Amino acid sequence: MSKTQFKKEIASMSREQLAGLLLEAYEARKETREYFEFFLNPDVGKLSQKYEAAIAKEFARVKRRYCRARMSNVKAALRDFASFQPGDEQVLDLYLWTIRHAMAAEKRIDFPEALIKSVAGILVAALNFADKALLADRALAAIDAILSDTAAGTLYFRRSLADYLSARKARLDIR
Fold first, then answer.
1. SS3 for 20?
2. What pLDDT sits at residue 10?
3. Which residues lie below 8 Å from residue 102, measured CB to CB, with a gap of 6+?
4. pLDDT at residue number 175
5. Are 110 and 126 in contact (CB under 8 A)?
6. 38, 65, 117, 145 — which has fewest CB within 10 A?
7. Which of 95, 100, 104 is nearest to 124 (CA)?
8. Which of 142, 137, 123, 134 is nearest to 174 (CA)?
9. What distance in Å separates the CA atoms of residue 163 and residue 116, rounded to the nearest whole number?
C-alpha cells in the first residue's frame, strides 16, 4: 500500500476506528510501541544510551583478535535512531560517538580493511547528514579533533579515515 492510499484510508476512518487502529498497532509491533512511547515521553538520553549499547555490542564482536562487527547492524541502528527524530544535533552526536567508539575498539583489536572502509563510510554519512542539517562546521571540527587525537585509534586507522575525509572535503570544496 502506498503512502497516498494509506492517507486516503485514514481520512475515511472515524475517530474511534483510528484510535482502535493505533491501539492495535501499539500492541502488535514492538517497533511501533517504542516509537509511540518515545513520542509521548521523549527521553533522548535514554534513547541514545540504548543505541550506543547496540553499536558497542557490535564492535565488541571479536574472533581471533579481529573485530567482526556487522556494519549493517551499526548502520541500521543509526537509521533507527534517526527515525525517532530526536533532533539533528543528537543524530550527529550518535554518528560522532560511533566513530569515536570504533577508533577506541580499533586500538585494542584488529580491524580488517573492509571494516576500516565501512567506518570511513559512516564518517562520510555523518558529513552528508551534517551538511543537510546545516551542521557541517560542527561536524568537521569534531571529526578533525577525533582524528588528531593520538590516544584514539592507531596511526594507520586515523590516516585512513583522514584520507577519506580529505577526499570528501575535495568533493564538497571545503577548506
1. helix
2. 85
3. 59, 69, 111, 119, 122, 153
4. 47
5. no
6. 65
7. 95
8. 137
9. 12
Query: Which residue shows C-alpha cell 560542527?
Result: 138
DSSP for 149-172 reads -TTSS-HHHHHHHHHHHHHHHHHH
Question: Residues in the chain with pLDDT < 50?
Answer: 175
Q: Any alpha helices (H) in the chain, and if so which ranges?
A: 3-12, 15-28, 30-40, 44-59, 71-83, 88-108, 113-132, 136-148, 155-172
- Residue 93 DSSP label: H
Among residues 86, 74, 62, which one has the least CA distance to residue 121?
74
Dihedral sign computed on CA atoms, order 82, 88, 93, 99: positive
Residue whose C-alpha is closest to residue 139's, from 151, 120, 125, 153? 125
Exposure letters 78-88 (e unless 16+ CB within 10 A, then b): bebbbebebee
* Beta strands 62-63; 66-67: pairing state: antiparallel
Q: What pLDDT score does 88 carry?
A: 94
Tell me how crowded residue 75 is: count the other CB atoms within 10 A of its CB. 16
C-alpha cell at 43: 527521553
